[in-house]
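We now fix the convention by which a protein and its fold are recorded. The integers have meaning only within a learned vocabulary of local backbone shapes. The record below shows the convention in full.
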Amino acid sequence: MIGPVLREGEAPALPAAVALVAGILLGSRAVTGAVGAAALIALAGLWLWRPEGRPARRAALVLLWLSAGFLSGRARIAIPAETASRAWAAAARSPGEAARIEGTLSDFWSGDPPAARGRLQAATLRVGGTVRPFPAEVALFVGGDGSSGRLAAADRGDRVEVTGKLRPEDLPASTRDVALPWKRYRLSIKSPRLLERRGATLLSPLQWPNRFLFERLPEAGAAFDRDVRGPLAALLLGRTSELDRGMVASYRRGGLYHLLVVSGLHVALAGGLVLWTLRLAGVRGKRRDALLLAAVFGIVLVGGANPPAVRAGLVFAVFLVARLIERPIRGAQAAGLSAILLFLAAPREVYSIGCVLTFAAVTGIALFSAPIRARLPRRPGWLFAGLATALAAEAATAPVLLWRFNLLAAGAWLTAPLAVPLSGALIGLGAVLLVFFSLGFAAGPLAAVFAAGCRLLEWSAERAAGIAVLRPTPPLFAMLSVGGMLLLAGIGPRRIRLPSAAGAAALFLFCALRPAPAGPARGFSLEALDVGQGDALLLRWGGRALLVDGGGPFDLDARDFGRTRLVPKLLDRGVTALDAVLLTHPHPDHALGLFAVLDELPVGRLLRGAGDDEASLYAGLERRARARGVPVAVLEAGTLELPEGSRLRVLVSGGPARKRDSVNNQSVVAVFERDGRRALLTGDAGAAAEEDLLRAGAVEPVDLLKVGHHGSRGSTTAAFLDALCPRVAVVSCGRENRFGHPAPETLAVLARRRIPVFRTDLSSDVRVELGPAGTRVAWRGIQ
């Protein structure tokens, strides 16, 4: 007879898992303490043998797992990070030599050369003739002629050797990103020929089902690829590179992106379909549990054994194995045990936001779905059971989504009754499609039904996006407090559960709905945002905000740059809407970030220069703006009145095409003024445009100069500086950029005039506040 291991409601593995995570976090940053942690483990073990009361035993267990986590974090994170840092420091002493790295591919390839991306768990680093241990995470960027044959030969789980230029990854976009206790690196590879497959690993065979099914997905035109191939590859195979960008944007804005890609929810939905099928077939008891366990293992394999699927599969496996050995446990206990197993095997996962979301959702479902279900109507049972599960998961993940992604996904709560069951149906239908495609059948009618379902799910995401809002970044401590109160509401003493839930809801709503911080009441501030080799200038005054340029890489296909790099910076500063966006000229390092800004944030109007278009960037942004209902205006020389006593005096916009640097010299050059303080914005205008302004007598003293063209030697002439007499200058450029910006000649001209210069490559985000009482400068800080 099967009997429960624990009394109803008990889940001692949850506090043990929390203690383990705390220990890993401490140990991963420690430089010593391993001996003391080992002694504490021994002491806790001895205490557990004493016939003491339950509180003492619980305290001993917490101490045991805390110490075990400390040892794991020290041995598996801190020491490898120190080893990798020493190897990098030695390699950096030979800057002219290429680095050869051997390791294991840890993710699927995304895109094709010259814009292919991958990820490597490195093992060794060779520079010159010296090989050093190099246990580090390396992002791979593969250039070349577009041939992906060499990349296709090596997939996730394979051991490879790559050769290229190695450097540490840049600073994270947002200050909210938790500083990792290890460095990440990036390797630029000139050609796929510089990548060699060295063999398989234990992970390689696990990728064969996924690779086999992916290779048999047909390509049958744009509509098929968008509505069938892309969603099918994402929903069941975990390969997101096939997805349409517009579709991805809709899901992200609505807070439903987790419905589009393989995640823990997909494993749960697929497992539920298998369980329903087994029940229809009359399979019961241990046989049912064994078949369900095998099915979950297969689901994880088909999904490429990616981390979200593995995490959810582990929870299922712990729960089902406990039943098979006749020691059943509740869902919360299964979540705690699976977390312990996962973090002991891979302690770095405690820093993964995906891992946090997975366990938050699983724990929320385990703790809250039953109480929520009890308060909903009884019939139809399948509908309200699914709704209770969705609401429990949304409640548990809401603090994480608000803090990490600034998303208040109110629409996801309302569309869950439709979206979650529909996603489950698409998974079931998609599985049938994969079987047909693997056997070489066209499956036309089934594909059409699947495409219609994907369109309906996308429509649901678009409805959710209409009432999902981006909010300023809340304090991390507040969101941790919300999570703690939610945990107490689930496993704490009964007398404090309701007050804990109410407190969590009140604190969450306060953080989500609090007003955004405003700009200076008098004067204004200009902040040069660190967007690499590009410009993105944020002007703020009162409750107003103007963004001048949006940064971006030189890869015209990298339209996601703004979402990952620029928008988080704006939200960290409390900017959830912009009065206007101004593009000075159509170059990628100024324009690409604005596509995501127009998609993600309310924008009053789009302003652009009157010069020639290049790479259709003006046209593309205008189409995006009109699709979002944003008015577009082409600037001409003159004065543009702005709210709250500010104005923009446009000195240059467009003009004749020149033989040299034509588009740069057509940049918008303008003076922003408020309360008697002035800042000159120059775009990438060079010496030719500066000379025209001097001849026209349009140059007058300013308080702040945004140095033109990232400080290149072709701008910021001595005569121009003498006419401006700026009190401070700001240079926006990328660290170790290939152009050598800012040029030594330009810096020398500024230095001879004793003008303080602040550079984003040295100081990251630089904020200059120009008020009636004076000028204040602050920066994020690198040097």
